[in-house]
Amino acid sequence: MLIIGIAGGTGSGKTTVVHQIMNELPEKEVGIISQDSYYRENHNLSFDERALINFDHPRAIDFDLLVAQLKELKAEKTIHQPVYSFLTHNRTEDTITTHPRKVMIVEGILILANPELRDLFDVKIYVHADSDERLIRRLKRDVADRGRDMDEVLTRYQNTLKPMHQQFIEPTKAFADIIIPNDRYNTVAIDVVRAVINQRIL
Asked: What are phi and psi of 172, to 5 degrees?
């Protein structure tokens, strides 16, 4: 199994890169795991308390579960991924059954910040985008898809997202094998990644 880690700041375009990589690959050979599914469950907290959690800090992620399930996939075992709701700031009771694939793509802002997880990646990619562009994308997504209002998003960006990005996310660029700048135009980097994958699954 080839495991690819795709990191980068919020709104950097990681999802776009994932789709670009998968676009010409056999669907049954490639699977995706999102770090967003592995936020810790917070059933012991009220909604207002959960809303105050710093979701951009590494301690918000259940890395132990993510590492354990990735190892299970590597051992050809089926896993049951947790499902996280951004509307309730908590895990749901649902799970997603995920089968082993020849290639697993793991994407998320903090996946290169955890040494044990990082060591499982055969290829490490960091998607870089201008901070203003990332903010605009985050604003559009959170208002449209996650029920946030603009003031809430901007306050969270200023107080949490930006300092966490500078402290925990941007430094992980140093661990990347490939840095993809301005993802929409960097077709060469995408082609290189596709070539590596094709060598493994053919």
From this structure: -75, -10
Which residue from 5, 4, 6, 3 is spatially nearest to 183, judged by alpha carbons? 6
Q: What is the pLDDT along the chain (202 residues), one digit of tens a residue?
A: 999 999 998 877 888 888 888 887 888 888 999 999 999 988 888 888 887 888 889 999 999 999 999 999 999 999 999 999 878 888 888 999 999 999 999 999 999 999 999 999 999 999 987 776 777 777 777 777 766 777 777 777 777 888 888 899 999 999 999 988 865 566 788 888 888 888 877 6
CA-closest candidate to residue 59, choices 138, 164, 155: 164
The closest of 164, 139, 140 to 153, measured between CA atoms, is 139
- Strand boundaries in 99-143, DSSP class E: 103-107, 123-128
Distance CA 42, CA 24 (A): 39
State how far the Cα of 168 lies from the Cα of 172, in Å rounded to an integer: 7
Closest CA to 111 of 128, 126, 133: 126
